[in-house]
Write a structure and sequence with these properties.
By secondary structure, the protein is mainly α. The chain has helices spanning 9-22, 27-31, 33-46, 56-63, 66-75, 82-101, 107-126, 128-133, 135-141, 147-154, 195-207, 213-221, 233-253, 260-263, 267-278, 281-292, 300-314, 319-348, 354-390. It starts with 8 loop residues before the first helix and ends with a helix.
């Protein structure tokens, strides 16, 4: 692999032959199925694109092979293969991160990126619960400016759930059937928070002490003064989710649900408000992005963080914070476009029956009209807020 011209095909063919032979329906092979998959996963992890970039195309085709995906995510009992396959996807996202962060997508990288989106589309269609359970770990390594890939993951929802139409005028979110259930997050995010910071954070959430915690919090998150690299994004994501889960547990312990009256004037909201005010523009965007990563299908996290965003907007003491949240709303609106694209891909690939196709086509027409109206209203609001402060048109 040290030569300038590396031929992937022989190695790819070798791995495919081994995979087909060792995953054949046989009683002896079935007894060692998990050990075989573990060996393949470990080998693919060692050959990840960041270590062997010349093998990247063959590597992506290997981890997306129908037999390998089925064995890892469906056939292996008790979801034992989920963590190993999630690690392979994290390896892929980490390889893309510097290219996506700096918008340096050459033609070969674009081809690999399109292949990655198609793999995610397959997972979204056949194994949405897998994306739901590992959404935090995936979004944690995907750059914030990579909206399409992130929203493709966030649009996953359990197959047994039927989503309500978000544009219904009489929709009552707090009365939805699954709004009080907690989603499963299989990524251990608490280990990211340093022990000293976690100890002080737990103390503040219980008794609002030490009193200097909020003023020192930004110092824990900021790692440099270089634009675009100022903050520890992984720590910020973990901090936002940890405070949110603690707030939800506290509210549920009092037999209540997250509504505006229950989330305000609490130490948890004090942490969020301090971050929204104390951080600069870059940090505030990353903070709002960390909250938006939990706006998914109906569950307790979606409910709490949506109420948190609304409260932060209503209580913002500067128009800059409100404008930042409005601009972040543009990113969230793209999720409806992603949903339409996903359904169109399913129709194009013949994944749906005829009746379902007709229903989706009618739904697209209604959503497009409502979505355009919502975007226009949002644009007008942003311009009005900007005009008040900067007087663009005077």
């Amino acid at each position: 692999m040290r030569n300038r011209v590396f031929q992937q095909l022989p190695y790819h063919r070798t791995f495919i032959m081994l995979l087909l032979e060792l995953c054949a329906p046989d009683d002896v092979l079935e007894s060692i199925n998990f050990q075989v998959l573990t060996a393949f996963s470990y080998t693919f992890h060692l050959l990840r694109p960041s270590k062997a970039p010349a093998f990247a195309y063959a590597w992506l085709e290997l981890i997306s092979h129908r037999i390998f995906i089925a064995r890892m995510l469906q056939i292996t009992p008790q979801q034992k293969g989920w963590a190993m396959y999630a690690q392979l996807l994290v390896d892929l996202f980490k390889f893309f991160a510097p290219f996506l962060r700096n918008n340096q997508l050459t033609k070969p990288t674009q081809l690999l990126y399109k292949g990655t989106l198609r793999v995610l589309l397959v997972l979204l269609h056949d194994f949405p619960e897998f994306l739901c359970d590992y959404h935090y770990g995936f979004c944690d390594v995907i750059p914030p400016n990579c909206i399409q890939m992130r929203n493709l993951i966030l649009s996953a929802f359990p197959r047994h759930m039927r989503l309500p139409d978000p544009f219904m005028p009489d929709l009552k979110v707090d009365l939805l059937k699954d709004i009080a259930s907690s989603p499963r997050i299989l990524t251990n995010f608490t280990t990211v928070i340093p022990q000293t910071l976690k100890k002080n954070l737990d103390s503040y959430l219980k008794s609002r002490s030490p009193v200097t915690f909020l003023t020192e919090l930004r110092g824990h998150l900021q790692v440099s003064n270089e634009p675009g690299m100022r903050y520890n994004i992984t720590l910020m994501n973990a901090l936002v989710l940890y405070v949110g889960t603690q707030a939800i547990s506290y509210i549920q312990s009092m037999c209540k649900v997250p509504v505006m009256g229950n989330i305000t004037h609490s130490p948890h909201m004090d942490v969020y408000q301090n971050l929204a005010i104390d951080l600069d523009t870059e940090g505030r965007y990353l903070f709002l992005n960390a909250i938006a990563n939990h706006l998914r299908y109906p569950n307790s996290h979606t409910h709490y963080f949506s109420c948190t965003l609304l409260y932060l907007f209503a209580e913002a003491n500067t128009e800059a914070i409100q404008i930042s949240q409005m601009l972040k709303s543009f990113d969230l609106m793209i999720q409806f476009c992603i949903g339409d694209w996903i359904e169109k891909e399913r129709v194009h690939n013949g994944c749906l029956d005829e009746e379902r196709k007709r229903c989706i086509e009618n739904m697209h027409k209604r959503r497009k009209q409502k979505k355009n109206m919502a975007l226009e209203e949002l644009k007008i609001s942003v311009l009005e807020q900007a005009k008040k402060k900067y007087d663009f048109y005077s």
